[in-house]
């Protein structure tokens, strides 16, 4: 059991009453060590990450219940979120309150008067008894807060307007039997806000994001997305979407103990334009809001590795895909591939032949495993040529040439592979011969003299075996 907390009556209240003391009537006598915090943050899966609040209690108010921060500001009638809640590195060990698991809530809330009703946290504690003459069985602590929020763009990602609102409600029932754990009921709602990624390239407008959790019940989520839009260099996608049918289900959602993911997929029908045909083109974007303090993650893709888009113009054709994942503006992964080629065939009856040429490039950028702040790039390119000749179905010859180069920015090495395959078939006899060569380039110059002797002692010992050189 923690040591009892000692309260002392506020001297202004004793001498002049509640009005003069700003409704503060008692203060916590400071103990040698910080008081145990009062937390209104149940486990992250239960709150949905809308907000997590903790505070160091410093006094009691007739209107707001438990209050924190400097009592002088509370008594003067001002609610200052920056001083009311703990800061990073607070001696109590408490963390600053977070919105959506990563945004510093006090930076988003305006100061107001302590008498401004619901715009100031109201924390009320009630002792529950089975009967008036019975000992208490539980303590119920309730917190309600609907703060005034600032308008503008914060942390480069969150955009709030005059219509943005936050509502927080927590009820904690703590049984006094010594073995039953507390039960927490939480409700949190954030309305009319937007999340912008990568300088506004991807923007998600939320009408409402609300979580409700009750003891013994599965937490529920109510997320309504008004629009998933593109800007900057991808603004053309918004204009393209205006001419396409809207998906029946709109944005899709998934929520679990780690966060919420909002995704949007737009399938584009085949686009024929004379000799040009583009098909299998899909635009997809998703945003993941973690509830455990990790950065917000956004992903945008143009088709995918498994289902690339294709483009063909008469004898020429190609395919490819593009995908990028970012966290708070930093690239987590960028992957792109483009292939192009041409093919032709000729049939003269007695003999037939075909030839095809394909080339492509692949790029992948991701953080280094040992240093997440350092990006490692992998660049690959290939060239493939195949020729076939068939005479009367009796004799056939095919030749394939394949060349690939891969560059790794971490090792500064270019790895090359060359392959030649010749296949010959005469009647029932067939033979295949392949030649393959691999080489590495650019691994660096020959080692310097100092690299051969990282420890100077062996070299000094060797030099000591020779006579000292004297000037002539």
Written account of the structure:
- It is a single chain.
- The chain has 472 residues and is mainly β.
- It folds into 2 domains: 7-328, no CATH class; 329-466.
- It is 8% helix and 54% strand.
- The protein has 7 helices and 32 strands.
- It has helices spanning 11-16, 44-47, 71-75, 81-84, 235-241, 449-452, 456-464, and strands at 7-9, 24-28, 38-39, 51-52, 54-55, 57-61, 65-68, 78-79, 98-99, 103-104, 112-113, 122-129, 136-145, 152-154, 158-175, 183-197, 202-213, 220-230, 252-256, 259-268, 271-273, 276-279, 281-290, 297-302, 309-313, 316-327, 330-347, 351-367, 375-391, 395-408, 413-426, 429-441.
- A hairpin with a 6-residue loop joins strand 12 and strand 13.
Blueprint (SSEs and pairs):
Blueprint: E1 7-9, H1 11-16, E2 24-28, E3 38-39, H2 44-47, E4 51-52, E5 54-55, E6 57-61, E7 65-68, H3 71-75, E8 78-79, H4 81-84, E9 98-99, E10 103-104, E11 112-113, E12 122-129, E13 136-145, E14 152-154, E15 158-175, E16 183-197, E17 202-213, E18 220-230, H5 235-241, E19 252-256, E20 259-268, E21 271-273, E22 276-279, E23 281-290, E24 297-302, E25 309-313, E26 316-327, E27 330-347, E28 351-367, E29 375-391, E30 395-408, E31 413-426, E32 429-441, H6 449-452, H7 456-464
Antiparallel strand pairs: 1-2, 2-6, 3-5, 4-9, 6-7, 8-11, 9-10, 12-13, 13-15, 14-15, 15-16, 16-17, 17-18, 19-20, 20-23, 21-22, 22-25, 23-24, 24-26, 25-26, 26-27, 27-28, 28-29, 29-30, 30-31, 31-32
């Amino acid at each position: 059991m923690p040591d009892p907390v000692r309260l002392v009556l506020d001297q202004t209240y004793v001498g002049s009453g509640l009005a003069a003391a700003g409704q503060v009537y008692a203060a916590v006598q400071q103990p040698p060590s910080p008081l145990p915090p009062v937390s209104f943050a149940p486990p992250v899966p239960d709150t949905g990450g809308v907000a997590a609040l903790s505070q160091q209690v410093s006094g009691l108010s007739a209107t707001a219940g438990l209050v924190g921060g400097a009592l002088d500001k509370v008594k003067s009638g001002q609610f200052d979120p920056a001083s009311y809640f703990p800061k990073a590195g607070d001696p109590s060990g408490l963390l600053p309150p977070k919105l959506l698991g990563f945004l510093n809530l006090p930076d988003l809330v305006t100061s107001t008067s302590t008498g401004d009703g619901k715009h100031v946290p109201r924390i009320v504690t009630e002792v529950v008894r089975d009967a008036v003459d019975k000992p208490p069985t539980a303590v119920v602590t309730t917190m309600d807060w609907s703060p005034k929020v600032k308008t503008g763009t914060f942390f480069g990602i969150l955009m709030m307007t005059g219509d943005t609102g936050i509502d927080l409600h927590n009820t904690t029932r703590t049984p006094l039997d010594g073995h039953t754990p507390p039960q927490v009921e939480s409700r949190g709602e954030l309305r009319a806000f937007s999340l912008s990624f990568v300088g506004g390239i991807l923007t998600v407008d939320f009408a409402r994001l609300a979580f409700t959790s009750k003891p013994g019940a599965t937490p529920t989520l109510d997320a309504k997305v008004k629009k998933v839009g593109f800007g900057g260099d991808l603004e053309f996608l918004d204009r393209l979407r205006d001419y396409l049918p809207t998906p029946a289900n709109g944005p899709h959602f998934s929520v679990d103990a780690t966060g919420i993911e909002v995704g949007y997929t737009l399938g584009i029908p085949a686009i024929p334009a004379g000799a040009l045909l583009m098909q299998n083109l899909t635009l997809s974007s998703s945003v993941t809001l973690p509830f455990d303090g990790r950065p917000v993650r956004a992903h945008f893709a143009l088709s995918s590795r498994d289902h690339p888009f294709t483009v063909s113009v008469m004898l020429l054709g190609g395919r490819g895909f593009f995908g990028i994942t970012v966290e708070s503006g930093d690239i987590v992964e960028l992957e792109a591939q483009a292939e192009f080629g041409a093919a032709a065939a000729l049939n003269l009856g007695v003999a037939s032949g075909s030839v095809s040429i394909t080339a492509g490039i692949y790029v992948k950028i991701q953080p280094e495993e040992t240093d997440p702040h350092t990006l490692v790039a992998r660049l690959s390119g290939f060239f493939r040529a195949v020729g076939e000749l068939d005479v009367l179905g009796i004799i056939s010859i095919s030749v394939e040439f394949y060349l690939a180069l891969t560059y790794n920015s971490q090792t500064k090495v270019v790895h090359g592979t060359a392959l030649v395959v010749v296949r010959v078939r005469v009647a029932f006899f067939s033979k295949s011969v392949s030649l393959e060569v691999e080489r590495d380039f650019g691994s660096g110059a020959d080692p310097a003299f100092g690299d051969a002797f990282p420890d100077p002692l062996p070299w000094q010992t060797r030099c000591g075996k020779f006579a000292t050189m004297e000037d002539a």
